[in-house]
Amino acid sequence: MSVTLTVSVLLFLSLAGFWLGRNRAVAVSGGRIANLHSVPNYYGSYMALWAALPALVLILVWLALRGAVIDWMVLSSMSPQQLESWARVMLAPVELEALLPSIADGASALTETSRQLLLINISNLAIGQAQYVNAGVIDAITPAANHLAQLRGLADWTLFGIVVALAGSLLAITWSKIGPEFRARNNVERIITALLVLCSTIAILTTVGIVLSLLFESIRFFTKVPITEFLFGLQWSPQTAIRADQVGSSGAFGAVPLFTGTLLIATIAMCVAAPVGLMSAIYLSEYAPKKIRGVVKPVLEILAGVPTVVFGFFAILTVAPFIRDVGAALGIPISSQSALAAGVVMGIMIVPFVSSLADDVINAVPQSLRDGSYGLGATKSETIKQVLLPAALPGIVGAMLLAVSRAIGETMIVVMAAGLQASLTLNPLESVTTVTVQIKSILVGDQEFDSAKTLSVFALGLVLFLVTLALNVVALRIVQKYREKYD
Amino acid sequence: MTEIAEPMPTAMPVSLHTGDAATKRLKARYAAERRFRFYGILAILFACTMLVILLSTLLKEGTSAFFQTEVKLAVTIDAGVIDPKGTGNPAEWDRGAFQTLVIDALYKEFPDVSGRTEKRDLRGLVSPVAGVRLGQMLDENPALVGQTIDVWLPASDGVNQIVKGGIDRDLPEAERPISDKQLAWFDSLEQRGDVRSAFNTTFFTASDSNYPELAGLLGAMVGTLLTMLVTLVISLPIGVAAAVYLEEFAPKNRFTEIIEVNINNLAAVPSIVFGLLGLAVFLNFFGMPRSAPLVGGLVLGLLVLPTIIIASRAALKAVPPSIREAALGMGASKLQAVMHHVLPLAMPGIMTGTIIGMAHAVGETAPLLMIGMNAFVTSAPDSLLASSSVLPVQIFIWADKPERGFVELTSAAILVLLAFLILMNGAAIWLRKKFERRW
Predict the structure, then answer these.
(1) Cβ separation B287–A279 shorter than 8 A
(2) Same domain, A300 and A425
(3) Do A307 and B39 touch (CB under 8 A)?
(4) Which of A42, A83, A425, B388 is most buried, by CB atoms within 10 Å?
(5) Pair B155, B241 in one domain
(6) Closest alpha carbon to B380 in B227, B256, B161
(7) Is A416:B399 a contact under the CB 8 Å cutoff?
(8) Over 80: is that where the pLDDT of A243 sits?
(9) Which H or E element spans position B199?
(10) Which of B40, B50, B395 is opposite residue A348, by nearest beta carbon?
(11) Mean of per-residue pLDDT scores for chain A
């Protein structure tokens, strides 16, 4: 854990810088603090920030790049003979066949997957976990493993040296700058403001990261499977074979059954959540006495705070068996993983969400509209149906769109309660699968990073991201436009 | 109001508002009013009932997991069996032999049981991992070797479920895991007073296991704590800094507008997409280890960041401008005014928002599955890079297991998770009540 040591030493240097800067400022003031441009603490902070920040950035960049560089150096140091004896034990015959002619090129001849495998073997051996390595290859990769361990140690100590040197020299430079005229406060404030700007761009960086990572992997997927087949194909069975010569080796990647399944479950969820959420919001804001409001609001908040994995367990433990039993009593066979069960539970999950959004929208309708309606002799329900709801309609539509986007993106309930079989049906009593279920089921477990099966996940993720993004943008637009009308 | 609807004396001309048709109309309107109101009550009742059913099911299923049926056996700790090398060093003991000792003690309890199938049935009374428990006891007190001691050992999952009523003992023999013969043996043990129901300490001191009697939550709880630590360290400073910049310093221009729209949209991105981001960036690009609390914390940190920024901005907005103006008037710089005066006043609001965001993160499951935090982890993680599980993922793993014992464990784990959440939300409400200031 030499990196931890490096960071602690850096923090210590930074603290020392604070103390040095403060003392230096007091010293140069000649006994009268008022001679200084800024309060002594600012001189300390100035040195502390300069000591810590550049070195921290350096550590982060180093950590991000270190792995790839070291891997490359280790692999390029392996001789073709070592590679061959490793490949003869670990690779499948087909891959070995492909590798042998070009083995003289060294590690660059390996495919991405076998390169990963080799690296895992070497690093396991290097950290002393030889039990995870096939005994037949230990001899071949021991030199590489030693090299790796040596490089890692070297890298850690080099980093330590560079960081200490950098922080030390910056301390010396800043120390020499300190004088009564030096504008320490302005300098510190400039650094802090820059940090604040940096933090607020993290949100953008996250979005960029999401878009780039999804897009990049999706494009790799679309080079293997045409985008038209993905968007319009009716067959989804991503089971690609392990070996190329196996039967049924090409999976089918038509995502339409997943889209219909997702929409089916989201529709069922909205059939539950929309009326219940809307009616409870109306009752709470228009009819309920304060006492009932005081009880029901917290109940809805608790319901909103229940983790989705709990709802998923509730679905398989209570709701799905109940629906199946009801079906059996009526003589209708219902799958125990029916879309109905998942949809109903998801609806229950979304009720508080719809209710609180609708509550806000209804409360935003000015009282004068209600009073005008009552003045004309309308009953409460007539006022609500003919005045309030039309006035609040854009906001309610916005709320429903947000709820739909939640339903589409929801994962745990459908993972636990809906099925895995991609069938193209609109029958709520059958088992369907959704986009999120497929993402989860493909990614959990062993994965191979350049197979179409794994890459398809990112294409699904991209579709999910774009659809929910579009729904949110439209919904927020509608809500904002509507708010402006009464403000 | 109804008197108005009453028909007037016949001498008066029939008005539009008093005729028979009008009465009927009014009746219908009032009926519609009552119906509408009834629908509202129905909706509320539906939501409340669902919550009650959810909680009562969990309580009913889960409370029994806090108790474990144990059987008292007189076990002779034969040094020759457990310590074949004769070194006397606990590290050299034959761990498999403890189960043999337990089985021998059980045979002694029922001397008339003979034959292979009968003996196998008899062994089915105690847990197949009772020997592990015995081993732990001896590790703590090695002086017991060579003696015959009365120890309480966990009963098998089937017996456990029969005692707790999870499985009905009146079911036909073929439908329950315990046969009639085993039931009779067990009843005779019970009559001798050799059966008790003890608090299931294993549940809080052990980590995941394939045997429900041995499975516990410790690993998941430690994993959750480590993950949340990383989440807090990532999201609180960045979130507050971003909020301060956007609320106090940012000029109104294209760039800040983009950031604002971005944050609002990010708050509504499905959590599983954050998991994909973590997989592609942290695991594949930066090569961080799978299943590590560090990566989980980073992903959840990004996930709750928008929540914290939005809450912090609201809290900063609630501080009246007079505070800033007074500070600026005294000669403070803009940054000093914000850091020394506005931020401390907004802190309670920021903390409340942060706790609510963290409570949201504690229950998050899907993104953590994407980065492999569903590992089977049998010991508590000891560093931020060790393989680890977290509470909601542990719940998900247990919910998938077929044994009846895991159903109650799942419910109990959910109760623990909900208790965590209620605690956090309670803290948020308390903070809000205690420090809330109206200007």
Answers:
(1) no
(2) yes
(3) no
(4) B388
(5) no
(6) B227
(7) yes
(8) no
(9) strand B195-199
(10) B50
(11) 86
Q: And the tokens for B414?
A: 């959910």
User: For residue B242, which of B301, B282, B296 has the smallest C-alpha distance?
Assistant: B301
B335 inside domain: yes
Q: Where is average pLDDT lowest: A113-122, A201-210, A300-309, B401-410?
A: A113-122
Give B184's contacts (C-beta < 8 A, 6+ positions apart): none
Q: Which of B51, B263, B271 sits opposite A203 (nearest CB)?
A: B263
Q: How many domains does chain B have?
A: 3
CATH of the domain at A270: 1.10.3720.10
The minimum CA-CA distance between A101 and chain B, rounded to whole Å, is: 30
β-sheet bridge partners, residue B155: B126
Share of chain A above pLDDT 70, in %: 95
Q: Which residues contact B138 (CB under 8 A, 6 or more apart)?
A: B77, B82, B90, B93, B98, B144, B145
pLDDT tops 90 at residue B304: yes
A310: chain B residues, CB-CB within 8 Å: 54, 58, 363, 395, 414, 417-418
Residue B11 confidence (pLDDT): 55
Q: Containing domain of residue A103, as a range?
A: 2-182
Of B47, B262, B270, the CB nearest to A204: B262
Q: CA B262 to CA B252: how far, in whole Å?
A: 15
Q: What pLDDT digit, counting tens, does each position of A38-93 carry?
A: 888 999 999 999 999 999 999 988 887 887 788 888 888 888 888 888 888 777 77
**A202: chain B residues, CB-CB within 8 Å:** 238, 242, 302, 305
8 Å CB contact of A193 and B276:
no
Over range B349-356, report the average pLDDT.
90
Last residue of a domain, one of A135, A166, A182: A182
Of A147, A166, A182, the position where a domain reaches its end is: A182
Residue A39: HSE in the Cβ half-sphere, 13 Å Cα cutoff: 8
Q: Is B94 in the same domain as B150?
A: yes
Quick one: B178 and B229 in the same domain? no
Q: Which site among A46, A74, A127, A196 would you substitute to test the B interface, given the most B Cβ atoms closer than 10 Å to its Cβ?
A: A196
Nearest CA-CA partner of B64 in B218, B185, B224, B212: B212
Helices B20-62 and B404-435: crossing angle in degrees, nearest 10, is 110
Q: Domain containing B179: what range?
A: 66-205
B324 and B223 share one domain: yes
- Does residue B213 fall inside a structural domain? no
Up-side HSE of residue B186: CA atoms within 13 Å toward CB? 24
Q: How many CB pairs under 8 A join A and B?
A: 246
Among residues B158, B180, B205, which one ends one of the domains? B205
Cβ pair B51:A303 closer than 8 A? yes
In-domain check, residue A52: yes
pLDDT tens, position by position, B161-185: 888 777 777 777 777 777 888 888 8
